[in-house]
Structures are given as structure tokens and as C-alpha cells.
Predict the structure.
Amino acid sequence: MTKEIPDWSEKKILIAEDEFMGKKYLEKLLVSRRAKLQFANNGEEAVRAVKNERFDMVLMDLKMPVKNGFDATMEIKELHPDLPVIAQTALAYPADEDRARACGCDDLVTKPFHKNELISKMTRLIGS
């Protein structure tokens, strides 16, 4: 049985990620699902992007320069409480997951994550 590949051609996703390889992995994964992508290199850029454009989801790295993902998520959720945010982190401690949820993240994946895990969580939040 093959899983249906979501068609996100009507979805715009902001990827807040400072690592080149992380960006490339997410780009490859989401372009194949036809999502429109925009990138932010740090939390400050992510907040600015959300102020200026409409997104269907944010994939937020928690550890970034200038403004970390925790602080950026809090600001984004103040602006758009219903905008889904999935945290991406290499921090695998329960306290980090608790902190991510406390700042407003709707879900979390721990790096390195399996693509099916991320796609499943995204589909739950934005549909297919």
C-alpha cells in the first residue's frame, strides 16, 4: 500500500532554518509536494516575513542566530495565533519539547527526523 503524496500547491510554507543542509533537505522534501516555500535564516527574519506575508505553516528551527526559534515563535503566535508552527530541533530533552510547546509550537520533530514523520505532522495541521 502506497501513501498518498499530499498536494500542497495551494500552501505557502515558511522555513526558518540557518543550516544550509537543513534548508536543502526540507526544500527537496516539500517541493516534491508542490508547496510554495520561503526561507528565513534566523528568527528575526521569520517574524518579519510573517508580518509581511500570509503563510499556511512555519517550520521553525529552535536554535538559530539573531533570534532563536522559541522567541520567534512567541512573536509569530502573538501576530497569528492560528498559524501552525512545527519546531525542528536537535535538542531531544523533554524540557526542550515542553519549552517549545509553551512558546506556542503546535508540534515538534527532533533532528534527524524521518520525512514521513514530518509529512504526517504537517498533514495533520494543514491538510493534504
Summary: DSSP finds five helices and five strands in the chain. The longest strand covers residues 12-16. The two ends are 18 Å apart (CA to CA). The chain has a mean pLDDT of 88.
